[in-house]
Write a structure and sequence with these properties.
The chain has about 270 residues and is mostly beta strands. The chain has no helices and 25 strands. It is rod-shaped and about 160 Å long. The relative contact order is 0.11.
């Protein structure tokens, strides 16, 4: 700078104008953790410019250098230094891990034409499938009343988009009734069809394992089957078996592993 007065006196003065360091910003964040229910966080580190710095976050309007308790979404901050210089940063809070779900009861067995209430814990949005036997498909506690054995699935989400799922097998007990062995049969080709062969009467769907043996009066095995639908036509070694009394031994393992054992006598009449 040069200054000249009225007498033409001259003064020369040098002035140095300095510029502060460049204003910079870096941002860091943690996601929403679906497994622990921990919400997200964001923080920024500012360098350069002239301190102190002021902060304004959107959309929370907080004024600190870090914010917490964040749901999934996009967040931005504007930082202003003492000279009015500004810089900004933007970050996105995402999610990690699966939402923990607790479905009660787990796999269960019920009697026919009965019901129970299922309860799922965790989340706020529910989607059950299939719909058969459920009182609702978008609630946390439907009444469950299936007609037959079925597997139910529930998908759960919360307001942050965390998702989880669980399943439940509901076994409906079978009404198996009795297993009946006729005491007499007549394999002569006449009369009712049911009388022309010997078989065990019962629900095949209930049978897990089956054994049926017929012996003559001397203890000779004349018929054996491992299939409840098999029939004895009254023949032994290709020839008609003799009329008379026979004994049988029946062993059935039901679908629920119950063991049924019966033995008795029967008569073959021609």
């Amino acid at each position: 700078m040069v200054v000249v007065d009225a007498a033409n006196c001259v003064v020369v003065q040098g002035i140095t104008i300095s510029e502060p360091p460049l204003l910079t910003i870096s941002a860091d964040s943690t996601p929403v953790n679906c497994a622990t229910n921990a919400l997200g966080t964001m923080d920024v580190t500012v360098n350069g410019g002239t301190g102190p710095y002021s902060y304004v976050w959107q959309p929370t309007n907080e004024i600190t250098d870090s914010i917490a308790g964040l749901d999934v979404g996009v967040y931005s901050v504007t930082v202003t230094d003492a000279n009015g210089c500004q810089i900004g940063a933007t970050g996105t809070i995402d999610i990690i891990n699966s939402l923990p779900i607790n479905l009660i009861p787990q796999d269960t067995m019920i009697n026919p034409e009965t019901s129970f209430i299922a309860n799922v814990y965790g989340g706020t949005i529910y989607d059950w499938s299939p719909v058969d036997g459920l009182s609702c498909t978008d609630c946390p506690n439907p009444v469950v009343a299936p007609d037959s054995t079925i597997t139910y699935y529930v998908q759960v989400a919360d307001n942050n988009g965390c998702q989880g799922e669980d399943s439940m097998v509901v076994t409906v007990k079978l009404l198996c009734g009795e297993f009946f062995v006729p005491t007499i049969f007549s394999p002569n080709g006449t009369g009712p069809k049911e009388n022309n062969a010997l078989k065990v009467f019962g629900k095949a769907v209930c049978v897990k394992d089956f054994g049926f043996v017929v012996y003559d009066r001397w203890g000779q095995k004349v018929f054996e089957s491992t299939n409840i639908n098999a029939e004895w036509d009254g023949f032994y070694k290709g020839r008609p078996a003799q009329e008379g009394n026979y004994v049988y031994d029946l062993n059935v393992q039901l679908y629920d592993d119950t063991i049924l054992h019966k033995s008795g006598s029967l008569t073959l009449v021609r």
